[in-house]
Specification:
single chain, mainly alpha, 13 helices, 75% helix
Length: 303
């Protein structure tokens, strides 16, 4: 009986470590496969594997890492609203951790990618309040400057660039950007109000003002034909015909004014976009992800 009991205990003792070792290998294999999918940019399959890892090993030391990677996979897969939601949750849960800090940056970057520059600025500033001495602090200030530039607020953009400390490795680039930001008022623009007013006085004149010669000619001819036809109908006492023609001419006339205003806005957007693209190409700056899945700074200057 004693011998049987000793054998049973020995089997149990040998079996328990074996099971624990198998669990460890299984956890490592699951996480490794998820990382491989992420590296291959198969982000949504990676999410499934990270979630599988968390489900089976919720108390594992890498569980927080897997949660961060799920949010990052949504970010890299352009599911920005999901990424923001998960990064917010992660940052609240891990405020003092390295990845918690990175989560705050990712939230701001996601808003920037969404072109919600007001929210992006608020999130970048939140990051600076929480982590004023972080290695990414100066890069974050530059990103705030880019956000202001995207909003057309070149004064605040220049202030952000000028705030980069002299000791910062980004100081020289920031000064270049500050100088460029101050040239924003020189970007060619057209007054939408003036364009609309010109077309109200003379159909097509507003389109000509913004350089749309074909649209100007078409607007002038169409309105001219209807005005002439309406006048002829009145001259011949064809009041019903004149009323119909006047109805259509009213639509053409106000359409011509609206077109002139819209053309001026489009002209301004195109010139501003060209200005920003030139700056981005010459002084491109971004917070990127390096091969080790940690935040890296990238700055390019082209001449």
């Amino acid at each position: 009986m004693k011998r049987l009991l000793l054998i049973t205990l020995a089997v149990l003792a040998l079996g328990t470590p074996a099971k624990g070792y198998a669990d460890i290998r299984s956890a490592e294999a699951t996480l490794s496969f998820a990382d491989q999918l992420f590296a291959e940019r198969d982000y949504f399959r990676a999410i499934t594997e990270y979630e599988r890892f968390i489900f089976h090993f919720p108390d594992h030391g890498q569980a927080a890492y897997a949660q961060y990677q799920i949010a990052l996979s949504y970010y890299m897969g352009d599911r920005l609203d999901d990424a923001i939601r998960l990064f917010e949750k992660f940052a609240d849960k891990h405020p003092a951790d390295e990845q918690g800090r990175q989560a705050l940056l990712r939230i701001a970057e996601a808003y920037f990618q969404k072109k919600d520059y007001t929210q992006a600025i608020a999130c970048y500033e939140r990051f600076l309040r929480n982590h004023p001495d972080a290695p990414e602090a100066d890069a974050t200030r530059i990103q705030i400057g880019w956000s202001y530039l995207r909003q057309g607020d070149w004064r605040r953009a220049a202030m952000q660039y000028d705030s980069i400390p002299v000791s910062s490795p980004l100081r020289e680039q920031a000064l270049w950007l500050s100088t460029e930001a101050k040239t924003y008022p020189a970007v060619p623009s057209k007054s939408p109000a003036l364009a609309g007013g010109l077309s109200a006085v003379l159909p097509g004149a507003g389109q000509l003002y913004v350089g749309r010669k074909y649209d100007a000619l078409l607007s002038f001819m169409m309105n001219g034909v209807f005005i002439w036809a309406t006048a002829e109908a009145l001259h011949n006492h064809s009041h019903t015909t004149a009323g119909v023609l006047l109805f259509f001419e009213t639509g053409w006339y106000f359409g011509n004014v609206y077109s002139a205003v819209s053309s001026a806005h489009k002209y301004n957007r195109d010139r501003q976009q060209g200005y920003l693209e030139r700056l981005s190409n010459q002084y491109g700056f971004s917070l990127l992800l390096d091969n080790d899945r940690t935040a890296a700074l990238a700055f390019t200057m082209r001449f």
